Amino acid sequence: MARSMWRGAIQFGLVTIPVKLYLATESGGIGFNMLHKEDLSRIQMKIYCPVDDEVISRSDTVRGYEWSKGKYVVITDEDLESVPLKTVRSIEIEAFVPTDEAEEKGARFVKQAYYLEPDEIGRKAFYLLKSVLAETGKTAICKIVLKDREQLAALNPFDKTMLLQTLHWPDEIRSLEELNLPEEEIEIKPAERKMAEQLIASMGEEFDPGQERDEYREALMQVIEAKIAGEKPVPAKQSEPTKIGDLMAALEASVAAARETRRTGAAKAEKAAKPKPARAKAASTSTRKRKAEDEEAPAARRRKTA
Amino acid sequence: MQATQVDAPFDDADYFFEPWWPGVRAFALAERGRLRLQADGLADATATFPEMGELLGQLGEDGVVLDGTLLVLDDDGRPDGGLLRARLGGDATAGRPAYVASDLLWAGGEPVTRRTFRVRRRWLEALLATGDRVTVGHGYVGDGTLVAEALATLGIDGLSARQLSARYRGGPAGAAWLRAPIIPAEPRARPTLALILRLPLAD
């Protein structure tokens, strides 16, 4: 059973359709870990400051935004928390636009595709929306908050469900001006056009993604599997479910009982609110104690061994 | 983040108090639909606690790192030191393991350690649904001494106190995370727990 990575609802007008999102794709790459050559242990990355020539800890770092070459402004936690966080779990439809127009104007720059799964109560509205989109050739342009960020997305019918594709914001799409493209139109002779048309026609066939394979990955996996030499871990037996909730309920009950005892028991019992123990003080008392023991210990030991 | 030991339980409105669950500190890493458990002193915690695969189904997002405790419970649902030792010793069938999550380090593929614990805790609650073996640990703001009194009756000997306004720190936690000892009040601690469990609270 696939795991949904987001739960929320499609919203437009007064309609709310509860849905789950599933990643539609996964990266097929084979992952490696970096190991120490000598003992094959996992290596650790340290944070290094080249100016002071020392390894520093993560807590000694701050977040900097480079606003001009070599010039940074420090952004603190407080700064980040002052940015209003969107926590709404909804796919808000902003507009319905013709699908081909959407494609032309940036809906091709897809970041990630997600499958939608309607909750049972929302099925009818979900499929109604889907069929109307399909019949009218429209795409729903919407906004969704994923990973704390507002994203632009396009919603389209897809097979037995709908596909939500998160898009790049317009200012994230690079201009073609950066490329060296000809200004004037290239002249093409009728004979050349004919030849190209014939070539394309001869290679025309139905698109069948099932035929395409990542051959490099398959070959690499063969090499890896040959090295592992057939040692498969045995799946362990599963024990009975635990019902960890019972333990939490026991905790809740005992805290409630303790609260009750405090309230009803000695009404004037002194409030146990002790100030937070200072660590420095704690340390010094224990050091003192340890010193005292050290002074007594040798004598005692000598007596025993004698 | 390693907790700082203090002398006794205390009250402080900037602290979140939880039981110091008697188990093994463990990080749970969920990435691209795969789960890895990293526990103190265990080479391969995922193999030692195979049941924890359940965790994946309870997470609302991918790219998540949780900080929590692996427990082994007995048939009555109480944490059991003996069963835990058996499990750690390689008996992958001993007791009933459970995972209590207390903190959130990554969410949605990005670190959240620079957020305050108050924010991380809220996100953790939104992200992890309670399952048969997995839950976000319950806790209380401010009333440290009260929680300590309650824990004494449960036979739990430690109180965890996390500072709500602190971010997650690598290494020693300083004031961000404290551990206070609890002296169990009476020897009849266990019967009390058994009695509570029989109350119809769980349903």
What does this structure look like?
The complex is a heterodimer of chains A (306) and B (203). With 306 residues, chain A is an alpha+beta fold. Chain A has a domain at 6-25 and 84-170: Beta Barrel (Ku70, Chain: A, Domain 2), CATH 2.40.290.10. Helix content of chain A is 34%, strand content 25%. Chain A has seven helices and eleven strands. Chain A has helices at 77-82, 99-107, 123-136, 190-202, 215-228, 244-264, 279-305; strands at residues 6-12, 15-23, 47-49, 54-56, 63-68, 71-75, 90-98, 110-118, 138-146, 149-158, 161-167. Chain A has a seven-stranded mixed barrel with strand order 1-2-8-11-10-9-7. A two-stranded antiparallel ribbon of chain A has the order 3-4. The termini of chain A are far apart. Chain B is of the alpha+beta class and 203 residues long. Chain B has one domain (4-197): DNA ligase/mRNA capping enzyme (D-amino Acid Aminotransferase, Chain A, domain 1). In chain B, a hairpin with a 2-residue loop joins strand 3 and strand 4 (34-39). The interface between A and B is large, with 55 and 72 residues.
What is the CATH level 1 assignment of the domain at 6-25 and 84-170 in chain A?
Answer: Mainly Beta
Number of domains in the coordinates of chain B? 1
Helix content of chain B: 10-25%
What pattern of helices and strands is seen along the backbone of chain B? EEEEHHEHEEHEEHEEH
Q: What's the main sheet of chain A like?
A: 7 strands, mixed, barrel
CATH fold annotation of the domain at 6-25 and 84-170 in chain A: Ku70, Chain: A, Domain 2
Beta strand count of chain B: 11
Question: Would you kindly provide a brief summary of this structure?
Answer:
Chain A has 306 residues and is of the alpha+beta class.
Secondary-structure blueprint of this entry?
The complex is a heterodimer of chains A (306) and B (203).
Chain A: E1 6-12, E2 15-23, E3 47-49, E4 54-56, E5 63-68, E6 71-75, H1 77-82, E7 90-98, H2 99-107, E8 110-118, H3 123-136, E9 138-146, E10 149-158, E11 161-167, H4 190-202, H5 215-228, H6 244-264, H7 279-305
Parallel strand pairs in A: 1-7
Antiparallel strand pairs in A: 1-2, 2-8, 3-4, 5-6, 7-9, 8-11, 9-10, 10-11
Chain B: E1 4-5, E2 12-19, E3 24-31, E4 34-39, H1 45-48, H2 54-58, E5 64-73, H3 81-88, E6 96-107, E7 110-111, H4 117-127, E8 134-136, E9 140-142, H5 144-154, E10 158-163, E11 177-181, H6 189-198
Parallel strand pairs in B: 1-11, 6-8
Antiparallel strand pairs in B: 2-9, 2-10, 3-4, 3-5, 5-6, 6-7, 10-11
